[in-house]
Amino acid sequence: MNTNAALYGDLERILVSREEIAEAVKKLGKQLTEDYADRAPVMVGILKGAVVFFADLIREIDLPLDIDFMSISSYGSSTKSSGVVRILKDLDRDITGRHVIVVEDIVDSGLTLSYLKGVLETRKAASVSIVTLLDKPARRKAPLEVQYSCFQIPDAFVVGYGLDYDEKYRNLPDIGVLHPRIYSENP
Ligand code: 5GP
């Protein structure tokens, strides 16, 4: 049962259900709690797509931690990466000497995160690890080590659970493949 019938009608299929997401997020939270025991990491959420995942994940981590956010441009309203990376909103706090965990919704070409990781390392963080909910390894263009990934998915454009198409669908609790008719209606 869902209350977003119109939005669900735009999906070709559900790829990852809310139950599968909840289970994976719980498991990842437990893993991070173990791996970062005795440390107080800074969790950096990448706006806006990672917000839903981020909010769920931090509540599954049993450690003292700080949160911060960055906004980076890589996609416009289309479904193809422009390869252009620009910081639209930077961190509020200094990360010198801190263990940083970057939380992303999806790694596609890897261009966005390999750029961002480089930026954070020049700021003398003690460590920078990458957490992603979804990974499309077949699409990688930049070399990038992803330390924590919940789901590897095929090369399809997905929406829901924070991920958008033209700012829509972020509020869907499940992740689904957007029906191609939606892009052809909105070139
Ligand atoms: P990358 O730099 O790795 O190519 O792109 C990462 C960003 O592209 C993600 O943070 C996300 O905003 C966007 N992106 C990549 N694939 C998808 C997808 O299938 N669906 C949505 N909604 N965004 C995607």
Q: Mind summarizing the main beta sheet?
A: 6 strands, mixed
Q: What is the C-alpha radius of gyration, as a whole number of Å? A: 16 Å
Helix content: 25-40%
The tally of strands reads 9
Helix/strand-derived category reads alpha/beta
Strand content: 25-35%
What are the low-pLDDT stretches, counting only 5+ consecutive residues below 50?
A: none
Name the bound molecules: guanosine-5'-monophosphate
* Strand order, largest beta sheet: 4-3-2-5-6-7
Mean pLDDT: 91
How far apart are the first and last residues' alpha carbons, in Å?
Answer: 31 Å
Number of separate helices: 5
Q: Helix-strand pattern, N to C?
A: HEHEHEEEHEEEEH
What is the overall silhouette?
globular
How would you describe what is shown here?
The chain has 187 residues and is an alpha/beta fold. The protein is built from five helices and nine strands. The strands form two sheets. It has a six-stranded mixed beta sheet. It has a three-stranded antiparallel beta sheet with strand order 1-9-8. Helix 2 crosses helix 3. The radius of gyration is 16 Å and the shape is globular. The structure holds guanosine-5'-monophosphate. Residues 49, 74-75, 81, 104-112, 157-159, 163-165 line the site of guanosine-5'-monophosphate.
